[in-house]
Amino acid sequence: MSESIIGARIPQVTARTKVSGTAQYAGDLKMAGMLHGKVLRSPYPHARIISIDTSRARALKGVKAVLTGEDTPTRMWGSARKERRILAAGKVRFAGEEVAAVAAVSDEIARDALELIRVEYEELPTLLDPFSALEPGAIEIHDGTGNIAYETHVDRGNVDKGFDSAAAIYEATYEMPPQYPGYLEPMGTLAAVDGDGRITVWAPTQSVFMSRSRLAEALDVPHSRVRFIQTITGGAFGAKAVEDANTPIAALLALKTGKPVRLVNTRLEDFLGAPTSMGATVWLRMGVSKEGLIVAKDSMIIGNNGAYTGLASHVIHVTSMRSDSMHRIENVRARGKLVYTNHIPSGAFRGFGGQQMAFPLNSHLTMLAEKIGMDPVEMQLRNAIQTGDTSVHGWVMRSCGLSDCIKQSTEAIGWADKRGSNKSVPHTAAIKRGLGVAAGIHVSANRQLGNWDGSTAVVKMNEDGRVTLLSAESDMGQGATTMMAQVCAHELGIPISHVTVSQPDSDVSPFGIGAIASRVTIIAGNAVRMAASEAREKLFAVVAEKLNVQASDLKVENGAIVVKNNREKSVSLPDAVRLHLFRHGGEGVYAKATYDPPTVMADKNYYGDVAPAYSFAAQAVEVEVDTETGQVRLVQSYTSDDCGKALNPMAVHGQTSGATAQSTGWALYENLDFQDGRLMNGNFADYNMPTANSVPTLQSGIIESNDPNGPYGAKGASETAILPGAAAIANAVYDAIGVRINSLPITPEKVLAALRDKRNEGANHA
């Protein structure tokens, strides 16, 4: 049992409660006397608040509180910059910003109360794109900023000298829209206040401690006055770490009323309030030698921050430099500007800024390969970083399966046989086929938020020999709970069903950073492994004394601790736990371990080995393009994921397929439609996400590079696979019809326009 559970295909331990409908999400929670919260949002993207009349709403029977910005703490809060109030005060900066909040005895009364609030606005000039916001004389969204929220400057080697040596140079500009997270569960919070004024919050979150910190800051109370408990979480993809105002508003309503308040977003409210991925425009220039080696890379990134700065400042930092470490490259330069606009704030999103450079970079590599007459796969392989290398930014590759990922994915779709073959589909000359390949790199943990990137796990063995595992690392659907239960069960030699992983709770759980930066498997996995191993050794010590043997002579087998060479001598696990407890000076079996990896925080020039491991992925695709309608259809896709060691291949394949579908949506379908700064498609009927009909059977493979820092060789596997998709599809479209689409999504209208321009260009040359 203990030998097979690592690497076994195991259903998620939370699956039964989810599929049976017994899982309690935030929107399912109820408490005695609970009130219902609702939020009034600004209809304008930029306006001054002249007055708010709440008198009629307050007078409505059943309404217990009506709050405006004047009722909120004056202390500013935010992830990277402290610049917003819980409710807008003085100005609104995006359409959808929270202006007033109501708590009432029912949803219906709360909605009616919103209708009775009268707000007088004075509209202000609106900045709807970063380039307008950077123009001289543009109005400042936040005074004194020049509309710049953050800047990056990265320089390595001699870029100009690199270009002088290049055999081929390619330059282009790429445009990428923001993407809505698209999780099944909209954001929701239940907040309650006890008799001492201490607030407890239940909400879906990726980090109870980061969320507690931001909430305490927003409420202007000490951290210890807030208890944060993670509910079962129906997806997050980076967007549930209290960058939005849902939880602070619910908590403030609870404080003001003294009653529990539940505030759950409708889907439209979630579109308006949840952080999107960072939209970006990237100018990229690259040069390669005649052998296909990258000799210089120069880029400028303009990121759309939206109205307030969440984690987008870290996102653009990633866009500026992370992809450089995928290649053996010496000369890189990047400039980035994160710009305020009157749009929904952007923030963390799966891939965390990596996809905003993966699309331009991989598109460039295919074009440069064509310029020197090389197969794009060969171009990728010649530049791929290898195990033992140190990247241009100081990242040490202790394990690296990038080349294997490229080979596995392209071989799986028959690249060598299909490359250069007839691109027309038989009997349908209008439909052309093409192949594309791309690759990506991601961190497994990241010593960036502070000079600690650790996790603590606590193993408590109960008198029946079963385990309660305490950790602050959250499961948001990616399988963290299952992974931790697997590791614990393996170390203790017990069935996985005998391990209960408690929900993260800031009052009970040991401190942890949470589910960000693909860190849970490698960081929490190591902490759990160490804690479970310590618990096992405590049991071995008391059993060795009872059986008069050495602890090294013992092992766990079939629910008992046995002597290796004499299985007749044994003690059951429950008896071993009782032996440890019921003796003079005894205690329960309780083991705690912390793992903080041997990494190096980046210096002011962004140089440092920031992660204990780095994950890689590659994707190869075949598409069909209908030259009459412009429709692009994904025919075949194979994504290869280097996750170190697949602790649970079923979970890895699930995450890879989900990431591939999400990148397909960004590449072909998804686009937030704004008119005059107002979102027009804030629902799943109008926001065009990929469905089962629009993706083929998603194939994926695993490369096990076995990282020395990972538990049993494992590293992150939830994010990297989202990175290659858009570029792989764009490259395949180019291969099919000879036109390069540099703005996402690749819609039929863009394809037809590009084909028309190509025909006109040919006619002009003729």
Any overview of this molecule?
There is one protein chain. By secondary structure, the chain is α+β, with helices and mostly antiparallel strands. Helix content is 28%, strand content 25%. It is built from 19 helices and 29 strands. The strands form seven sheets. A seven-stranded mixed beta sheet has the order 3-5-1-12-9-10-11, sandwiched between helices. Strands 7-15-14-13-8 form a five-stranded mixed beta sheet. The chain has a five-stranded mixed beta sheet with strand order 16-17-25-26-29, with helices on both faces. Strand 10 (199-203), helix 6 and strand 11 (226-230) form a beta-alpha-beta unit. The longest helix has 28 residues, at 520-547. The chain is globular, with a radius of gyration of 27 Å. The termini are far apart. The relative contact order is 0.13. The model has no long low-confidence stretch (mean pLDDT 95).
Largest sheet: 7 strands, mixed
The strand order across the widest sheet is 3-5-1-12-9-10-11
Low-confidence stretches: none
**Helicity level:** 25-40%
Judging from the principal axes of the Cα atoms, what is the shape?
globular
Alpha-carbon distance between the two ends: 73 Å
Q: Please state the CA-atom Rg, rounded to the nearest Å.
A: 27 Å
What's the total helix number? 19
Number of strands: 29
> Which structural class do you get from the secondary structure elements?
alpha+beta
Helix and strand arrangement:
Elements: H1 15-19, E1 35-41, E2 47-53, H2 55-59, E3 63-68, E4 91-92, E5 98-104, H3 107-116, E6 118-123, H4 130-133, E7 148-156, H5 159-164, E8 168-176, E9 188-193, E10 199-203, H6 208-219, E11 226-230, H7 246-257, E12 261-264, H8 267-273, E13 279-288, E14 294-306, H9 312-321, E15 332-340, H10 355-371, H11 376-383, H12 402-412, H13 415-418, E16 424-425, E17 428-444, E18 455-461, E19 467-470, H14 480-492, E20 499-501, H15 520-547, E21 554-557, E22 560-563, E23 566-572, H16 573-581, E24 589-595, E25 613-626, E26 632-642, H17 649-668, E27 674-675, E28 678-679, E29 699-703, H18 725-737, H19 748-765
